[in-house]
């Protein structure tokens, strides 16, 4: 099985869990979300007053009171509060969207406003001047023009989490930028997790019917949401299916589209490639596959970790590159290839195949798109548990790292962090436990590929017996930006006529930029940053926490 398909399978196990186990919340009502489906099957007759009361209860259930950042004393006060929230919540992660609501989402909404109200009059004027010596393709002008005050707009959020970001963005636009809010035809949340999609539907169900007439709570999340849910559409779609052209995320259109992704890149399936030097000095690119084998390693014993029944029959192998998608990505940006040290032991490199293909799909299908993707640019090494291992030849006890002892893959550049639901880290993706009995194979041969195993075979996307693990990849934002620039250059070139090529060069109608998250928030959330500064020290976690996060933006040139 190709490595990215195996990674996809592992992540599917993780996201098949109840939503409150995956994405944390500042609310203590996480467990209530599991009762939604059961209650919806009961048909009752209720009065309008009862309905409004139920809607108010429902809204309170999914509303999370934000942290009063300005009342903090400073950094250490925030760290104490942060640790306390982590102890009290049941989810695996507390994201910046959840922690910094509504300020974080407001900043993203301000980016949307900036893109929606930008015009390229200067660029178009320059093109008009140049057209005296060269005819201008009208399609190129259309793709250059970012917007006009009456143009329609779509917002697409990939991986919507708890729906908090979408709700915060729409609330901010509705209250402060009604002209942009009214131009939005659709706010589409795309997710592959059934449990998260249901939670997102719950969050917006009350706002799509009628508001309880709230007077604007201090959290900024309940200010007259009547009809807001009518703009929101949830779509179940897997990004790997989009990357491999089995699903279409965006139809072909020149409609202005803003594509958001908050902490999606770290969970997209990756490949891993290496180089092999031949005797004649040439190199062969190798792709990674996961194979099933009946041969247990000689060092196996009863004291080994409890993953033997799941993953000890799997191993990693490198074979000549044949996957068309991976070949395509590497041909577009050869710098994704591992460094060729002209030796036999080249260090492999993880490749964000899914993210790159998804990016290409977006800019190809929507030439008038803008992008905000935020994620980790660095992740710490795993914190490996230690356990005593008593030698049979003596009574001495040595301490052995569980994950390190069971590493079954070759470490590469961009290695992911593997952690389970108990916050236990593992040395590599093959060292981690597998939920249920999701991996099976025909054991008539000593080594069998897993490609024939259907995704419906136990465990994936269904009930699991524990052992779910999150797989988090750091993103090389510099290379991803280079890939985006190359794709956009190619897209522009395909709409350029021969006469246009003879005209003086014109600056591209887009800007690809990588910034730290703090810089992005300072640019698009100045008021939000000021509102969250400590009254005593001026400290704000919006700028000083999550320092390992970066932002990729593709924006229309001003």
Keywords, separated by commas or semicolons:
7-stranded mixed β-sheet; 35% helix; 5-stranded antiparallel β-sheet; alpha+beta; 558 residues; 22 helices
**Class of secondary structure makeup:** alpha+beta
Can you tell me the overall shape? globular
Query: What topology, given as strand order, has the largest sheet?
Result: 3-2-1-4-9-17-16
Using the CA coordinates, give the radius of gyration: 26 Å
Percentage of residues in DSSP E strands? 15-25%
Helix content: 25-40%
Low-confidence stretches: 28-48, 50-62, 119-147, 209-220, 295-309, 388-405, 437-449, 452-465
Counting DSSP H or I runs of 4 or more residues, the number of helices is 22
- What kind of sheet is the major sheet? 7 strands, mixed
Mean of all residue-level pLDDT scores: 77
Number of strands: 17
| N→C terminal distance | 46 Å
- Oligomeric form of this entry? single chain
Write a structural description.
- This protein has 558 residues and is α+β, with helices and mostly antiparallel strands.
- It contains 22 helices and 17 strands.
- The chain has a 7-stranded mixed beta sheet, sandwiched between helices.
- A hairpin with a 4-residue loop joins strand 12 and strand 13.
């Amino acid at each position: 099985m190709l490595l990215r398909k195996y990674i996809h399978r592992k992540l599917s196990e993780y996201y098949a869990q109840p939503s409150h186990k995956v994405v944390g919340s500042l609310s203590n009502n996480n467990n209530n979300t599991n009762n939604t489906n059961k209650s919806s099957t009961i048909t009752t007759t209720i009065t309008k007053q009862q309905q409004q009361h139920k809607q108010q209860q429902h809204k309170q259930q999914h509303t999370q009171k934000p942290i009063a950042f300005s009342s903090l004393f400073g950094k250490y006060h925030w760290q104490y509060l942060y640790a306390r929230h982590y102890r009290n919540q049941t989810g695996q992660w507390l994201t910046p969207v959840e922690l910094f609501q509504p300020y974080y989402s407001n900043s993203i909404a301000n980016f949307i406003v900036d893109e929606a109200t930008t015009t390229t009059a200067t660029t178009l004027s320059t093109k008009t001047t140049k057209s005296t010596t060269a005819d201008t393709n009208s399609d190129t002008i259309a793709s250059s023009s970012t917007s006009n005050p009456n143009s329609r707009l779509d917002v697409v959020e990939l991986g919507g989490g708890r729906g908090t970001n979408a709700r915060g963005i729409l609330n901010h636009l509705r209250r402060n930028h009604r002209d942009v809010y009214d131009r939005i035809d659709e706010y589409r949340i795309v997710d592959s997790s059934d449990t998260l999609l249901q939670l997102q539907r719950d969050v917006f169900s009350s706002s799509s019917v009628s508001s309880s007439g709230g007077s604007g709570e201090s959290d900024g999340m309940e200010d007259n949401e009547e009809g807001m849910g009518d703009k929101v559409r949830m779509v179940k779609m897997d990004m790997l299916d989009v990357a491999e052209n089995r699903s279409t995320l965006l139809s072909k259109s020149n409609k202005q589209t803003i594509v958001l992704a908050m902490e999606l890149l770290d969970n997209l399936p990756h490949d891993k490639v290496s180089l092999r030097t031949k005797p004649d000095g040439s190199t062969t690119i190798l792709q990674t596959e996961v194979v099933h084998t009946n041969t247990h390693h000689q060092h196996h014993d009863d004291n080994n970790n409890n993953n033997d029944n799941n993953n000890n029959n799997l191993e990693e192998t490198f074979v000549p590159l044949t996957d068309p998608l991976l070949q395509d990505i590497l041909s577009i940006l050869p710098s994704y290839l591992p460094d060729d040290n002209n030796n036999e032991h080249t260090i492999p490199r993880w490749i964000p195949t899914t993210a790159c293909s998804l990016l290409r799909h977006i800019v190809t299908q929507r030439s008038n798109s803008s992008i905000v993707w935020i994620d980790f640019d660095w992740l710490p090494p795993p914190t490996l548990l230690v356990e005593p291992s008593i030698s049979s030849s003596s009574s001495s006890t040595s301490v052995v790292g569980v994950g390190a002892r069971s590493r079954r893959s070759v470490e590469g550049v961009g290695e992911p962090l593997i952690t389970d639901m108990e916050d236990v880290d593992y040395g590599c993706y093959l060292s981690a436990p597998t939920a249920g009995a999701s991996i099976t194979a025909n054991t008539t041969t000593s080594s069998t590929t897993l490609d024939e195993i259907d995704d419906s075979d136990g465990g994936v996307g269904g009930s699991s017996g524990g052992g779910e693990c999150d797989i988090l990849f750091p993103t090389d934002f510099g290379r991803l930006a280079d890939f985006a620039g190359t794709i956009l250059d190619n897209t522009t070139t395909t709409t350029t006529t021969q006469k246009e090529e003879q005209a003086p060069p014109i600056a591209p109608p887009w800007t690809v930029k990588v910034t730290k998250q703090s810089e992005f928030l300072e640019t698009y959330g100045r008021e939000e940053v000021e509102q969250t500064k400590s009254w005593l020290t001026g400290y704000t976690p919006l700028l000083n926490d999550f320092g390992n996060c970066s932002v990729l933006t593709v924006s229309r040139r001003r």
